Amino acid sequence: MTIEIADLTRRFDRTEVLRGINLAIAEGELVALLGPSGSGKTTLLKIIAGLDWPDTGSLTVNGQDWLAKRAQDRRAGFVFQHYALFPHMKVRDNIAFGLTVLPRRDRPSAAAIRARVDELMRFLQISALADRFPAELSGGQRQRVALGRAMAISPAVLLLDEPFGALDALVRRDLRRWLRDVLETSKTTSIFVTHDQEEAFELADRVVIMGAGRIEQIGRPDEIYDHPATPFVARFLGLSVELPVRLRAGRVEAPGLDATALPRRAMADGPAMLFARPADLAPVPAQDGPLRVAAISSTGALLHVQLTDDGGLAVETEVPRRRGLHLSLGQRVTLRVEAGQVFRDGAPAETPAETPAADSRPVPLRYEHSSKESLR
Amino acid sequence: MNVTAITPQDSARAALSHDIAMRRLLIGAALALTALLVVVPLAYIFYRAFAAGWQVFAANITEPNTLHAIGLTALVAAIAVPVNIVFGLCAAWVIARFRFAGRRLLLTLIEIPFSISPIIAGICYLLLYGRQGLLGPFLMAHDIRILFALPGIVMVTMFVTAPFVVREVLPLMQAQGSEQEQAALTLGASGWQVFRLVSLPNIRWALVYGAVLCTARAVGEFGGVSVVSGSIRGQTNTLPLQIELLFNDLNMVGAFAASSVLTLIAVIALVVKSLLETRRG
């Protein structure tokens, strides 16, 4: 089942919710739509399901124009965040719903429906719940039933809207692993919406990051994690420290900054921004370091170390507590960057010239202690 | 120190006993008023209806004009209530599921019968459909009788009872949202299947509740109907109008007998309503 989405736009009144979405999904793929709330990911999912309609663009599934089809005729299984189970029906009847509403000529016999539902409930490990009503189930159980109901129609594509959003953390983790097994076994093409990065990265074959109605980046989880394509993706993925740097011969340079661990970039010389995760920044004690330790707080396993320079720049770093014991307030340090991403001021991202693995030659970084201003 | 410590306690205790006395007084007053205004008159209707014995009661009930009035009232309710159920469902559906210009206006319009005296509705119909009315000549030319006939009575009854079903069903539909219906759609259900298998079961108790209230109101309607029916004995007299006629004829047993029938219907509706309330609660 290949899904092709081209130039899809959608606006509600004056708000542009989708501004030109292009996306192709291969048969059997599990794709996560990841983004902050308001990025348009749920709207995109509803358009694929036929519960909402785009203003322009096309949606083709296996060569068929789905925009010409009603929701009833698409066979898109939809799983809602709040389950949307039918409260007056037992679990068994909820799951059988999609089969019992088939027109008489397509409908399996009552015995066949029963057998299919039984099989599905065994597969989903919810056989014990068959004769209960939704009100008698926990949140996690309800979501399993909701998935069963959507899978009963052998959907062309399974669409899950924040499937774990209404569950507490422990159930969430259990259900996530369960869902991954189920989807891997059933090989159903699936798209799920989430705002939880960990969830998307753990589950999905490919992650689509959306921001303000556009796709910011598409890629495998590790690819995106290591190489965020835009400042938006970098910030969203927790590269929250932004340092002004200079590029010289593809190398990142700034006073007091050891960026030797970073790969070389195919970018022209000039000013740029380095985005890094606090955990990828290590304060290194140095007598003439341009930064000072301004605050240290412990979360048990980690130390949050706040650094400042004389010009008012503030840098948040995260150090395993045992390795940060030598740090003290007011101490002068330099900064070592383990990983990060470089962007020209707000300009679209350029892909790295070489992957970190290919770049094995360490090139020493030259310090420029005299021009502290460039660090700001 | 001691003095200041004890005084507030004492005054608190005094306030508490004062509160209890006040509460008893209010409960007593409420019970007494209910008895005086509601229970005693209702009981008295049955007492008077049966005062001259069962046979006299039966003779009065089976009097042709009274019997006809009972039949007419049942017929009016049998038409007006189902029509209002359908109308109420459609209106609630549209208001709950769609955002459109004039949505609030529609909601307000539906509630108008709650605030307007039914007699005004009757007079409006008279001015619209009467011989001298706006549509009078047209209706006369096509030999359509609305006033002083069944259609007029049914229409006024429908006007008066219009809000009942909507008011019960709408809040529930708004609270439940449309996700279940969307789920049913993606599972391949047709529009009718969605309504029958998902929407209707979710609102069924509210719907029955609204229908019961609607029936009680339709059966008891007096003011509006009295204007448009013409009160022709044995023809356009509904039960409430018949009671008034009997009363004006000084036929007290007849009036009370007819009243007891109407009261019985109301009491049954009330019992059904409370049963539904426990079921819904």
Automatic annotation (TrEMBL), chain A:
<feature type="compositionally biased region" description="Basic and acidic residues">
    <location>
        <begin position="366"/>
        <end position="376"/>
    </location>
</feature>
<dbReference type="InterPro" id="IPR003593">
    <property type="entry name" value="AAA+_ATPase"/>
</dbReference>
<dbReference type="GO" id="GO:0016887">
    <property type="term" value="F:ATP hydrolysis activity"/>
</dbReference>
<dbReference type="GO" id="GO:0005524">
    <property type="term" value="F:ATP binding"/>
</dbReference>
<keyword id="KW-0813">Transport</keyword>
<keyword id="KW-0547">Nucleotide-binding</keyword>
<feature type="region of interest" description="Disordered">
    <location>
        <begin position="344"/>
        <end position="376"/>
    </location>
</feature>
<feature type="domain" description="ABC transporter">
    <location>
        <begin position="3"/>
        <end position="237"/>
    </location>
</feature>
<dbReference type="InterPro" id="IPR017871">
    <property type="entry name" value="ABC_transporter-like_CS"/>
</dbReference>
<dbReference type="InterPro" id="IPR050093">
    <property type="entry name" value="ABC_SmlMolc_Importer"/>
</dbReference>
<dbReference type="GO" id="GO:0015697">
    <property type="term" value="P:quaternary ammonium group transport"/>
</dbReference>
<dbReference type="Pfam" id="PF00005">
    <property type="entry name" value="ABC_tran"/>
</dbReference>
<keyword id="KW-0067">ATP-binding</keyword>
<protein>
    <submittedName>
        <fullName>Sulfate transport system ATP-binding protein</fullName>
    </submittedName>
</protein>
<dbReference type="InterPro" id="IPR027417">
    <property type="entry name" value="P-loop_NTPase"/>
</dbReference>
<feature type="compositionally biased region" description="Low complexity">
    <location>
        <begin position="348"/>
        <end position="358"/>
    </location>
</feature>
<dbReference type="InterPro" id="IPR003439">
    <property type="entry name" value="ABC_transporter-like_ATP-bd"/>
</dbReference>
Automatic annotation (TrEMBL), chain B:
<keyword id="KW-0764">Sulfate transport</keyword>
<feature type="transmembrane region" description="Helical">
    <location>
        <begin position="148"/>
        <end position="166"/>
    </location>
</feature>
<dbReference type="InterPro" id="IPR000515">
    <property type="entry name" value="MetI-like"/>
</dbReference>
<feature type="domain" description="ABC transmembrane type-1">
    <location>
        <begin position="70"/>
        <end position="277"/>
    </location>
</feature>
<feature type="transmembrane region" description="Helical">
    <location>
        <begin position="206"/>
        <end position="232"/>
    </location>
</feature>
<keyword id="KW-0472">Membrane</keyword>
<keyword id="KW-1133">Transmembrane helix</keyword>
<feature type="transmembrane region" description="Helical">
    <location>
        <begin position="25"/>
        <end position="47"/>
    </location>
</feature>
<dbReference type="GO" id="GO:0005886">
    <property type="term" value="C:plasma membrane"/>
</dbReference>
<comment type="subunit">
    <text>The complex is composed of two ATP-binding proteins (CysA), two transmembrane proteins (CysT and CysW) and a solute-binding protein (CysP).</text>
</comment>
<comment type="function">
    <text>Part of the ABC transporter complex CysAWTP (TC 3.A.1.6.1) involved in sulfate/thiosulfate import. Probably responsible for the translocation of the substrate across the membrane.</text>
</comment>
<feature type="transmembrane region" description="Helical">
    <location>
        <begin position="106"/>
        <end position="128"/>
    </location>
</feature>
<protein>
    <submittedName>
        <fullName>Sulfate transport system permease protein</fullName>
    </submittedName>
</protein>
<dbReference type="Pfam" id="PF00528">
    <property type="entry name" value="BPD_transp_1"/>
</dbReference>
<dbReference type="InterPro" id="IPR035906">
    <property type="entry name" value="MetI-like_sf"/>
</dbReference>
<feature type="transmembrane region" description="Helical">
    <location>
        <begin position="252"/>
        <end position="272"/>
    </location>
</feature>
<feature type="transmembrane region" description="Helical">
    <location>
        <begin position="67"/>
        <end position="94"/>
    </location>
</feature>
<dbReference type="InterPro" id="IPR005667">
    <property type="entry name" value="Sulph_transpt2"/>
</dbReference>
<keyword id="KW-0813">Transport</keyword>
<dbReference type="GO" id="GO:0015419">
    <property type="term" value="F:ABC-type sulfate transporter activity"/>
</dbReference>
<dbReference type="InterPro" id="IPR011866">
    <property type="entry name" value="CysW_permease"/>
</dbReference>
<keyword id="KW-0812">Transmembrane</keyword>
